[in-house]
Amino acid sequence: MNETTIRLGGVPEHFNLPIHLAMEEGRFAEKGIHLEWTTFGGGTGQMTKALRDNEVDACILLTEGIISDIIKGNACKIISVYVKTPLTWGVHTGAKNALKNYLNIYDKQYAISRFGSGSHLMAIVDANEKNVELKQSQFSPIKNLEGALESLDNLETDVFYWEKYTTKPYVDSGQLRRIGEYVTPWPCFVIAARQDILESNPDQIIRMLRVIHDRTDLFMQSEDSIQLVSERYHQKLKDVSRWFHSTEWAIHGWVSDQMVKSIIYHLKAAGIVEENALIPEIIWKR
User: Fold this and answer.
1) Could you write out the DSSP letters of every residue in 231-255?
2) What percent of the chain has pLDDT over 90?
């Protein structure tokens, strides 16, 4: 069988371990897929740019981030939900910062990986739900988690939204203080692919999805998964166990139209998407 190369990207976080395991086990190769993985430490904003620039064919990224970018002209479609459960964002500040109360963050300086990233969008959505409008000048792009740690430690920024279990080791070590949490009201991660590869290689994309769904299903059922995540991502077993038992991966490619409409509503309400924006087809209809 001739192999088709598919370039897939994602963040360096525990959610993506099932895909790494599938690669190590040769499951993509069995289906005629040569999967090239690229790690994006800068998160969703970095990945939407990589999709636009044809550096990757598909990415696993935050649902609200890719929907916003598709509306703004990114020639991609959502091809599957990846993680069905919401993301719990930790709201963090630096160890030296005098900030103590989650309710006092809205006039502070925010560290964000990039404009259009999850750390940017969720700060706006969270503030908007509390009838607060953040100014663009309040956001400082810091590229990635390491950049945030440095920025917060230097008191250049005050607030940082990031997935709470990824930052838990830094909270435990005292580098960060978590002063609040924000839970997204929708499934947190989807898989999106460039329109051109969906047109040129639809069967290969479907085979890739089948491998991912089968491996996430096995991952959820395996008693070894918690130990594996703990070892590979240097997290405490009790933290991983709590995360694992509150996370559900998708095992099929269905994407809810209603979910997409809900996110677009929130993005418009937060001013991230213009009220009269033309909404293209978001979901891949196969």
Assistant:
1) HHHT--HHHHHHHHTT--B-SS---
2) 91
pLDDT in tens, 57-87: 999 999 999 999 999 999 999 999 999 999 9
Rg of the chain taking only CA atoms, in angstroms: 19
Within a 10 A sphere around the Cβ of 27, how many other Cβ atoms? Answer: 19
Domains of the chain: 4-86+187-269 (3.40.190.10), 88-183 (3.40.190.10)
pLDDT per residue as tens digits for the range 244-261: 999 999 999 999 999 999
* Angstrom distance (rounded) from CA 50 to CA 59: 9
Structure tokens at 243: 């995360």
Nearest to 98 by CA among 108, 88, 87: 108
Dist CA 65 CA 82 (whole Å): 14
